[in-house]
Design brief:
Elements lengths: L2 H55 L14 H19 L7 H37 L3 H4 L5
Length: 146
């Protein structure tokens, strides 16, 4: 190959390279930025997937660092058991719940209040009869609590 041909080929190659270098450089930079962004997204997605996996299945503890953590299915079963206990206590169920005990206490207090009213009425009647027999007026014989 003659030297003139080689110089021509090198000149053309240099001109083509110079013409395309800017766009190629921009394309490479854009491609690198896009690759970094995709890598960040992929890393974040992997972290979230790993966290979801640990939440779902639980994770063993690390001695001296963190206690073991149960998975979501075990925790949901635990919550359901607690809700069953709470439901048992706040609904009427034949006398064994807190609600049943409160109802019985309410009835007992109402019964005692009724008996007390009856007793106080009889006591006033008795005091009035005693006052009549002694000849004192009802206001003298009946002492009202202060």
């Amino acid at each position: 190959m003659p030297l003139d041909t080689l110089i021509t080929i090198l000149s053309v190659t240099a001109a083509v390279t110079a013409a395309f270098y800017g766009p190629l450089k921009d394309l490479l930079v854009h491609s690198t930025k896009k690759h970094k962004e995709e890598e960040i997204i992929r890393t974040r997605r992997d972290e979230l997937t790993d966290r979801m996996h640990r939440d779902w299945f639980g994770e063993p503890g690390v001695e001296g660092v963190s206690p073991p953590r149960a998975g979501i299915l075990f925790r949901m079963a635990n919550i359901e058991a607690h809700l069953t206990t709470i439901d048992h206590e706040v609904n009427f169920n034949g006398g064994k719940s807190i609600k049943d005990a409160v109802h019985r206490t309410d009835q007992a207090v109402a019964d005692v209040a009724g008996k007390l009213d009856t007793h106080l009425g009889r006591s006033r009647e008795f005091q009035e009869r005693v006052a009549d027999k002694l000849g004192a007026g009802p206001t003298d014989a009946i002492r009202r609590p202060v």
